[in-house]
Structure formats: structure tokens, C-alpha cells
Amino acid sequence: MKKFLPWIIVAVVIIGLYGWASGIYNKAVTLDQDVKESWGNVNTAYQKRNDLIPNLVSTVKGYATHEKSTLTAVIEARAKATSVTIDPTNVTPEQLAAYNSAQSGVSSSLSKLLVSVEQYPDLKANQNFIDLQRELTSMENQILTARTRFNEAVKPYNNNINTFPRNILAGMYGLKEKPYFEASTGADKPVEVKF
């Protein structure tokens, strides 16, 4: 029995190290999947908003013939926003900033459109327009929730791969920190609304 004791100890140590390393990796994979799911929810919320925009533009177009430039800006912002895509497995802060910027362009042009609508009392009273406006407000809240949940999913992933000794294995596995959604540039300043 003494003859096999060193081999048993080595086997136990190897099995223990394997279990520890695979546990760290499996936890990182699970958390990464949570981040991907959250990112999918963000994209779903933005897509739903982008799907509402043509209906809003069509409704406004019938009333606001003088607002062609504003309508064009909304359509162009939507096209730009839908052209920016991100792979959540390799997301970088720069990619997330570009995505955020494109989506902010949509929000900005929608705000201008809704402000210009103030000049059309018949449109403001139109039930379709009122419903679309409510739906867009609801979508903006859903987008905020989805972005918040994305950040909440990123935090445990980043904590998991950045704490010692997990950071050593994470580096060996090629796992990288994921960026958070941040506020758009200028979001700290109050919005000026002109009628």
C-alpha cells in the first residue's frame, strides 16, 4: 500500500486541479451565456422600436407635409442603427460605443419628430398617433431595462474572470472583460426642447 501512496496522492491532486480549473471555466461559460442572452434582449428591444418607426413616420407623413427633413432624419437614423451589429462574444468598448451612438441617433431624431408634431393639433388627437407614441414610450422603457440587465449580466462575468486566481486561468482560456453600456455623450446635460 505504501508503494502506491505517492501515486494516489498525485492522482488526487490532479483530479482536484482538474475539477478546480474546469469549475472556473464552466462558471465563466455560464456567465458568458447570461451576457449573450442579455445582449439578445437589448437587440430585441431596439428591433421592436425600429419596427415601430415606419408606422410612426407613415402616420406623421399624412399630416406633416412640411416636416420632410425631420422624417428623413428619422428614416436615416433608423437605417444607420440597424446597420450596426455586434457579436457579444467579442464585443469591445469601441463597438459598444458605436452601437450606442447609432441608437442615440434614433432617439434624438424621434425626439425632434415628436416635438415637430406639436404644430399639428389634428395629428396629436389622432388615435393611431397616440397609440404609437405610447408604444414608443413603452419601448424606450424596455430598452432601458434591457440595457440595465445587460450591465447586470456583465458585472458577475467580469468579476469572475478578473479575480485571483481565476484571472490566470481566464487569461489561459482567452477570456476577456466585457464592456458595459454607458450613457451617450452629452447625456449628463439637460435636453433643450423648443416649440
Automatic annotation (TrEMBL):
Membrane topology type: Single-pass membrane protein
Main location: membrane
Record's subcellular location: Membrane
Entry-linked Pfam families: LemA
Alphabetical keyword list: Membrane, Transmembrane, Transmembrane helix
Taxonomy, superkingdom: Bacteria
InterPro entries in the record: LemA-like_dom_sf, MamQ_LemA
Any single GO CC term annotated in Swiss-Prot or TrEMBL for this entry: membrane
Family statement drawn from the similarity comment of this UniProt entry: Belongs to the LemA family.
PANTHER family assigned: MEMBRANE PROTEIN (PTHR34478:SF2), PROTEIN LEMA (PTHR34478)
Annotated protein name in UniProt: LemA family protein
Lineage summary: Bacteria, Pseudomonadati, Bacteroidota, Flavobacteriia, Flavobacteriales
